[in-house]
TrEMBL record:
Keywords: Membrane, Transmembrane, Transmembrane helix. This is Metallophosphoesterase. Residues 10-19 have a biased composition (Low complexity). SUPFAM superfamilies: Metallo-dependent phosphatases (SSF56300). It comes from the Bacteria. Residues 1-38 are annotated as: Disordered. The chain crosses the membrane at residues 47-70, 381-400, 412-432, 444-467, 473-495. The keyword Lipoprotein does not apply.
Amino acid sequence: MTDQQDRRTGAPAWTAEPAPTDPPAPSRPRSLDPRELGFTPQRPVPWLAPLLLISTGLRTLLALLFGAYLDKRELQNSLPSDVTRQVGPEGDLWLDFVADLGDGFNATYSVAYLLSRPELEVGGHRLPRGQMLLMGGDQVYPTASGEAYENRCKGPYQAALPQPPTVGPPPTLYAVPGNHDWYDGLTAFLRLFAASRDSNIGGRRTPQARSYFVVELPADWWLYGLDGQSGVYLDDPQLRYFEEAAKRLTPESRVIIAVPEPSWVKAVDHPEAYDTIDYFVRTVIAPTGAKVRLLVSGDLHHYARYSGPDRELVTCGGGGAYLYPTHKLPERIEVPPKDTLVRRASNSESYGLAARYPEPGRSRRYGWGIFGRLPLRNPGFATLLGALHTLLLLAMVGVAAPRTEAAAQRLFSIPLAVMLVVTLLGAVFFAKPPSANGKRHARHWILGLCHGFAHVGLAAGGTWIWLQLDFHVWPWPLPVVAAAVVYGPLAGLVASQLTATYLLIAGSFGVNLNELFAGQGIEDAKCFLRLHIDADGTLTGYPVAVDEICRRWRADPDGAPDAAWLSPEQPLALRLAEPPFTLR
């Protein structure tokens, strides 16, 4: 519905325009069989799997090189440009924010299930279900496609709230695209959230028409959802849309901005990361006199709130993806950074870290889990290390115990110098992949080379042990077969522990911190943000934390039409990540 329609009719915002005709109610599943659910629950993404690393790296590189050619935002200029209005029947609004949700089913559905509950009781507070759900980016992993969205996002959320609630207006759903949503040029995202024939996901309507939007909230609060194309820039049609919407702002207006990534944190190492947000605030919002009171984002998979003189900066990316650590977050940040190259940047303000989840001590303890989880979560990565060390072994044996070789044997041998170069370069690139943001610093080179030399040393020790055995004197090709069958698996396991040690050490220097936790795929410690905007204009934030997700579900075939299809076998324990914070 448009704001103009609402003002003309004088009807409550949620009744100004009839909801689209709901599709026929699907039959409730009697089990977790994908044929009954209508989607296939997915396992967590093994982020260090070799093929996935190569695929994701290529997609990231293509997005960086050809993102402008795949950019569909200019085409959205032909789509409706309404400013919607969202106000509850009582003149207030409950709004839920969740981000980074499209990973393994257990974690994603645990959060979706909680978001669908009519009410939650957390920390002595009774929190009604959000009348509006805002997804803050990365609704699917590892790459966007129709099938991935169906299995990792739409399916779980439809199972959690299959039909609109029987009491009250149907809730709405808006989504901001993140970098993983952009890997197909935003095609699947637009089909699901902005151009859906059904215009709903389960029991929630999807009224947005573009990958960006403006929503008028109660008491002169406004929500701006930005599509920054992975932090590159804001396109002209998007800026014109926002500038037109900003004409309705006044000096009394208060603004919430949802962005795909917490550039206020990333700007500590890359000052240019915040330039897009600063440009938007400086050129679109500031001329109206309105105040930006809250910036909210996902992308980093944890909860953190930085508090400043008149603004809160909130990261809440705990919707389902692997946990990202909090113990390396800076205690204070300058926003915008003082050393940004933007000549007309806003005045810098200091922000302090007011809260984070999980707590720093727990975050550090999670890091030590890399030794057990790395080979179990990423067997392909351990296999790759085993293959590398097998080739190193064969090359070193060829130098240490040379033999008269047949032509076929020489054809399949690899010079030791080549293997050493491959190992060292691979370790350096692992410390700072070419597609990663920012430049390599001395710590990346030093730690990467130390990691590489450690693997060379491990290979030399393995070669010495191998030479004490009789395998190397067997007739060719039996030594190669024995190395692949006997040495390779053992070397892969030992090498994975060496890599785990490296990740733990490097993480303490801020290097490969993402890989330290991505390699573990920690599903627990999830979170979402529930906001309440009172009719008097007071905004209260309740960050809900889930220390342990559910891993065993039971079907509820006889439940009410709007009841979740699957329920946890044991109740999910909730708590607040911090006491409620208030904005006025």
